[in-house]
From TrEMBL:
Keyword Nuclease: no
Recorded superkingdom: Bacteria
Organism phylogeny: Bacteria, Pseudomonadati, Pseudomonadota, Alphaproteobacteria, Parvularculales
Binding site for substrate: R98, R108, R136, D220
Keyword field: Amino-acid biosynthesis, Branched-chain amino acid biosynthesis, Cytoplasm, Leucine biosynthesis, Magnesium, Manganese, Metal-binding, NAD, Oxidoreductase
Protein's name in the database: 3-isopropylmalate dehydrogenase
Subcellular location: Cytoplasm
InterPro entries reported for this sequence: IsoCit/isopropylmalate_DH_CS, IsoPropMal-DH-like_dom, Isopropylmalate_DH
Source organism (scientific name): Parvularcula dongshanensis
E.C. designation(s): 1.1.1.85
Length: 350
């Protein structure tokens, strides 16, 4: 068994956390007898600086021909500033990557790790038992609809087809089957036509999964529920923008955005992209203050979903738990451990 992984470090803390994740991945693969080959490609702002394009052809080719992509983060104030006078946006490269690779299902798990109650903004009895998988639609909706842009008026269309909704909802039903068999579909069906289509599609598919209980929650109420009773939820499926917002919220509820991993998947057998859900964190970049756990746990998801190596994935997850269990905390979790301290503790636990 061998794995060819394309690494896209990107910008800000991206290179710091992918370096940590690559080291952990290498050790986990060696222990599991998996041959690992990695290559590093330009992406995001770093690619703009080198080539003028956030998603250059060489990077695209590497992503489409490898087994899996491990991504850091893209973006930063320098490119935001340049975009005001027509410069390319790093974030556009990220959307182009997701689209080119057909990554319609974005799995964003968040759970309360043992002993981490103190890192949650919620009272312990409220956050206890939280273990939620958000399945975010990733290649449709308002991110990809027609746009008009101006200084006096602007619009972003939010189109969804029935087929686009169904394929991601099926991923969520299947995930619920492997968990607590409870699916919550989040929408804004009291206002949005796309949400009524979404709800209709979920209801039509439900009979195919009689073992899964389904409920529907409006997105504004969901934002509130996640801070009052997050442990009530199991799998949550929602459209692109709602999933972006709710997953950042949920990550903070269980401790920090620095802990949150993700897998972006398309058709079975095609390469997936694995990345922490956080951004390039320009405020802490270059200080070795980034929490690498989200990237390391993304490498675990890579082994599970693209490497068919669930035991190796579980070993990485246990090693992260062990490092946290030793009380090691990066700055986002109220501690002073560096990126390197945390990475070393995970490697030692492995
Ligand atoms: N997938 C991606 O590449 C991605 C995701 C989100 C944002 N972005 C981009 O990143 C840039 C910064 O965005 P932002 O500041 O809104 O969001 P962000 O996620 O980069 O940072 C938000 C806050 O969380 C902290 N944080 C994030 N990750 C952390 C980690 N691993 N360890 C410790 N602290 C961490 C940051 O220091 C900051 O205070 C923007 O250009 C944005 O477009 C990229
Ligand atoms: C950077 C941005 C385009 C991206 C998104 O909105 O999808 C980010 O916030 C994420 O969650 O991966
Ligand atoms: Mg986001």
């Amino acid at each position: 068994m061998s794995l060819h992984v394309t690494i896209l470090p990107g910008d800000g803390i991206g290179p710091e956390v992918t370096e940590a994740a690559e080291r952990v991945l290498a050790v986990a693969c060696e222990a599991a007898g998996i041959g690992l080959r990695t290559d590093h490609e330009l992406f995001g702002g770093a690619a703009i600086d080198a080539t003028g394009d956030p998603f250059p052809e060489k990077t695209r080719h590497a992503c489409l021909t490898c087994d899996a992509v491990l991504l850091g983060a893209v973006g930063g104030p320098r490119w935001d500033e340049a975009a005001k006078t027509g410069g390319p946006r790093p974030e556009k490269g990220l959307l182009a990557l997701r689209s080119a690779m057909g990554l319609f299902a974005n799995l964003r798990p968040s759970r309360l790790f043992p002993g981490m109650e103190d890192a949650s903004p919620l009272r312990p009895e409220r956050v206890e038992g939280t273990d939620v998988l958000i399945v975010r639609e990733l290649t449709g909706g308002v991110y990809f609809g027609e746009k008009t842009e101006g200084t006096e008026a602007a619009s972003d269309l939010m189109p969804y087809s029935r087929a686009e909704v169904e394929r991601v909802v099926r991923v969520a039903f299947e995930a619920a089957r492997g968990r607590k068999k409870h699916l919550t579909s989040v929408d804004k069906a009291n206002v949005l036509a796309t949400s009524r289509l979404w709800r209709h599609a979920v209801e039509a598919l439900a009979p195919d999964y009689p073992d899964v209980t389904v409920d529907h929650v409006l997105v504004d109420a969901m934002a509130m529920h996640l801070t009052t009773r997050p442990a009530r939820f199991d799998v949550v499926v929602t459209e692109n923008l709602f999933g972006d917002v709710l997953s950042d919220e949920l990550s903070a509820v269980v401790g920090s955005i620095g802990l949150a991993a993700s897998a972006s998947l398309g058709e079975p057998g095609k390469p997936g992209v694995y990345e922490p859900i956080h951004g390039s964190a320009p405020d802490i970049a270059g200080q070795s203050a980034a929490n690498p756990a989200g990237a390391i746990l993304s490498a675990a998801m890579l082994l599970r979903h693209s490497g068919d190596a669930p035991e190796a994935a579980a070993r990485i997850e246990a090693a992260v738990e062990a490092a946290l269990g030793q009380g090691l905390r990066t700055r986002d979790l109220g501690g002073s451990a560096s990126t390197e301290d945390f990475t070393k503790a995970v490697l030692a636990a492995l």
